[in-house]
Amino acid sequence: MNEHIAPALPDWQVSRWFNTEGPLRLADLRGRVVLIHAFQMLCPGCVAHGLPQAARVHQRFGGEGVAVVGLHCVFEHHEAMGPQALQAFIHEYRLRFPIGVDGPSPDGPVPRTMAQWRLQGTPSTLLLDRQGRLRLHHFGALDELHLGVAIGRLLAQPPADRSDVNASTADVAACADGACTIGR
């Protein structure tokens, strides 16, 4: 584990939104703790672990200062995971939090935000503090207790608190069970 507080993330580059009245920007979410779940709908680890976890966080903490946002990052099987298929997937899995489709890259299969944020694959979980700074970045299935403690610590901070608290960033060098890596 590498402990540090990263600067604010650059904004995502989303081509389409679901479950929200309009486009979201990271700046719009300042003042709340933000859980971002990067996923692919055909990723077994996302379907089995990441998306249910994001849905539980949204259900439990959504009214308590935590925003949950899904980021659909398609880096393989592009033809099978278009917006219509994603809309049906969101409906069937009853996902209620906002979900953005990461914008395609003109340079290759890895979408824009995924490349800009240097995500290793899916599922990836990112946790931002109330100021929009990255406090946790984890590739693969994330332990529920670890995530709950991290969210609780960030919620316990006053909204204007900029003090240094333990931040956890999981640096994963290889594939983890239940995760789909980007073939680079």
Automatic annotation (TrEMBL):
Sample GO molecular function, one term: oxidoreductase activity
Domain Thioredoxin span(s) in chain numbering: 3-156
InterPro entries cross-referenced by the UniProt entry: AhpC/TSA (IPR000866), Thioredoxin-like_sf (IPR036249), Thioredoxin_domain (IPR013766), Thioredoxin_ResA/DsbE_sf (IPR050553)
Pfam families: AhpC-TSA
Coiled coil: none
Gene3D superfamilies xrefs: Glutaredoxin
Protein name per Swiss-Prot or TrEMBL: Peroxiredoxin
Lineage: Bacteria, Pseudomonadati, Pseudomonadota, Betaproteobacteria, Burkholderiales
